[in-house]
Amino acid sequence: MQYIYIFIGGALGALLRYAFSTLNDSSGFPLGTFIVNLLGAFLMGLIGTLTITLFKKYPLVKKAITTGFIGALTTFSTFQFELVQLFDHHNFMMLIIYGLTSYILGIIFCYLGVKIGGQL
């Protein structure tokens, strides 16, 4: 049964991820990937914290959201590939900005999710 929950969550996350990928344009900054990864970091912090109380009774819903939805929504491999593409195109400033802001803001967004989840 858990596979069905993960499948449904993953399908929804993948569809949303695809919708955000349309925000990427030729300017060099992969905005869609940036947004979904920060959103995913926040949601993982929030859901991870809420799991302690809210999802204790509903572990399948937790798996659907974390492994399924957030797992399909976020993308570390695409992030890495985009960094390599920026490097190959000698867009070093964008590479540094994209890499550092993604890592730093990802940690901050996850931390905010944890703090907000602890307050609920």
UniProtKB/TrEMBL annotation:
Regulation: Na(+) is not transported, but it plays an essential structural role and its presence is essential for fluoride channel function.
Residues spanning the membrane: 31-55, 67-87, 93-114
Pfam family, one: CRCB
Major location category of this protein: membrane
Annotated binding of Na(+), by residue: G71, T74
Subcellular location, record wording: Cell membrane
Stored InterPro entries: FluC (IPR003691)
Reaction(s) catalysed (UniProt annotation): fluoride(in) = fluoride(out)
Entry keyword annotation includes S-adenosyl-L-methionine: no
Family note: Belongs to the fluoride channel Fluc/FEX (TC 1.A.43) family.
Protein name: Fluoride-specific ion channel FluC
Species annotation: Staphylococcus capitis
Gene name in the database record: crcB
